[in-house]
């Protein structure tokens, strides 16, 4: 099942690497919902975990996610069901002031031919 989320990045957690070699990075996205705001944790897994590090709080993003669910037998506590949103494609809709400044600095260096005139 696929879900599209459009919102603002609230936080980017540190990437996690497990003994099996599996990697993931959780990002919290704030989505307006009328008077209240919802915050969704989305996961960037495997190679996408590095890309999550390029996101910064305040960025407006659109993410396409796979909705995944699984269940767990807790013994005497009973069965529990878990759900995760795994990002497989995203786009940045607006850039922060910091991103604009970095892009301008990169462009200035790229256009500098070394001549003082």
Describe this structure in words.
Strands 1, 2, 3, 4, 5 and 6 form a six-stranded antiparallel sheet that branches. 17% of the residues lie in helices and 55% in strands. The mean pLDDT is 85. The chain contains two helices and six strands, in the order E-E-E-E-H-E-E-H. It is α+β, with helices and mostly antiparallel strands and 117 residues long. The radius of gyration is 19 Å and the shape is globular.
Q: Can you summarize this structure?
A:
Helix content is 17%, strand content 55%.
Average pLDDT score: 85
Distance between the termini: 58 Å
Question: Any low-confidence stretches, pLDDT <50, length ≥5?
Answer: none
The total strand number stands at 6
Described by strand count, sense and barrel closure, the largest sheet is: 6 strands, antiparallel
How large is the count of helical segments? 2
The percent range for helix content is 10-25%
Q: Approximately how much beta-strand content do the residues carry? A: over 45%
Rg is: 19 Å
Structural class, please? alpha+beta
Shape: globular
> What is the ordering of alpha helices and beta strands?
EEEEHEEH
């Amino acid at each position: 099942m696929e879900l599209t989320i459009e919102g603002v990045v609230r936080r980017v957690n540190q990437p996690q690497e497990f003994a099996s070699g599996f990697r993931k990075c959780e990002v919290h996205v704030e989505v307006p919902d009328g008077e209240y705001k919802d915050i969704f944790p989305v996961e960037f897994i495997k190679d996408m975990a590095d890309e999550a590090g390029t996101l910064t709080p305040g960025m407006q993003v659109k993410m396409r996610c796979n909705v995944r669910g699984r269940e767990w037998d807790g013994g005497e506590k009973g069965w529990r069901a878990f759900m995760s949103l795994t990002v497989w494609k995203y786009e940045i809709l607006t850039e922060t002031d910091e991103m604009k400044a970095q892009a301008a600095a990169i462009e200035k260096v790229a256009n500098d031919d070394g001549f003082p005139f």
